[in-house]
Amino acid sequence: MLGTIVNTVAIVLGSLLGLLFGQALPEKMKRTVIQGIGLSVLLIGGSMALQTKNSLIVIASLVLGGILGEWIDIELRLQHLGEWLEGKLSKGRPAGGFTSAFVTTSLIYCVGAMAIMGSLESGLNGNHNILFAKSMLDGISALVFASSMGIGVLVSAVPVFLYQGAITLTAGLLQGILSPQVIAEMGATGGLLIVGIGINILEIKEIKVGNLLLAIFIAIPITILFTKLHLGI
Questions:
Q1: What pLDDT, on a 0 to 100 scale, did the predictor assign at position 100?
Q2: 51 CB contacts (<8 Å, ≥6 apart)?
Q3: Higher-confidence residue: 22 or 131?
Q4: Nearest CA to 40 among 201, 179, 231?
Q5: More confident residue, 54 or 124
Q6: Which residues fall within 8 angstroms of residue 148, CB to CB, at 6 or more apart?
Q7: CB neighbours (10 Å) of residue 195?
Q8: Residues 6+ apart with CB under 8 A from 100
Q9: How far apart are CA 175 and CA 166, in angstroms?
């Protein structure tokens, strides 16, 4: 749970700093820091992706995950969920202020490959590096968001703690079930998705990472199949 705790604290501290001092930071400085973290995300994702023992597993997982994700249209459904939550929480009042900030940032921090893979790595291997990197990104973005959106950003730390903590604890229970090969290929597949997040942060090209998220879990049966057939593992 260390990674999740650090992530939660980073959002709280970033939000408090944004509420107190955010308006004093130049936009150029905020943009440069975000770009630096985007490059760091690329490094972390790339190093994870290179740990694959068979690139065919990663390719097959991404292809099948992308097909299924596009069919379900995960990103669109997440967008609709956010709009529905915002409507329920605002209770007919115009969106904005606390509600808008809380819903928007909660979805940003909870939905993504770094949240899922970071929590899995934390629970399975005790490796908190992904969540530590996410903490830096979330802390800086919380500062930026809170400076313009208000205190609702601070409260978004609560669903982050509950969501990532649940994944971490569940992953720990599955540690005896998932083989090292499966964990490695899940990590490699998730690593490429993290690269996609880095590309999005740097605004190089928009990649629908949300619609590829299922690839992480599809990597489980594909790796098991390749292992049984002795195909490169």
A1: 67
A2: 184, 187, 188, 191
A3: 131
A4: 201
A5: 54
A6: 22
A7: 22
A8: 86, 90, 149, 152
A9: 14
pLDDT of residue 70: 93
For residues 30 and 3, what is the distance between their CA atoms, to the nearest angstrom? 24
Across the chain, how many H-helices and E-strands are there? Answer: 11, 0
Distance CA 214, CA 122 (A): 19
Q: Which residue has the tokens 């990663």?
A: 58
Q: What six digits make up the tokens of 90?
A: 């605002």
Backbone angles phi, psi at 85, to 5 degrees: -60, -40
pTM (global) more than 0.85:
no
Neighbours of 232 (CB within 10 A): 12
Answer yes or no: is pLDDT of 116 > 70.
Answer: yes
Q: Which of 99, 86, 115, 103 is nearest to 8 (CA)?
A: 115
The CB density around residue 95, as the number of other CB atoms within 10 Å, is 13
Separation CA 192–CA 138 (nearest Å): 20
Per-residue tokens: 40: 């760091």
Question: Which band of pLDDT confidence, cut at 50, 70 and 90, is reported for residue 196?
Answer: confident
Least confident range of 88-92, 110-114, 123-127, 128-132: 88-92
Q: Which residue carries 């998220």 as its tokens?
A: 213
Chain mean pLDDT for the chain: 83
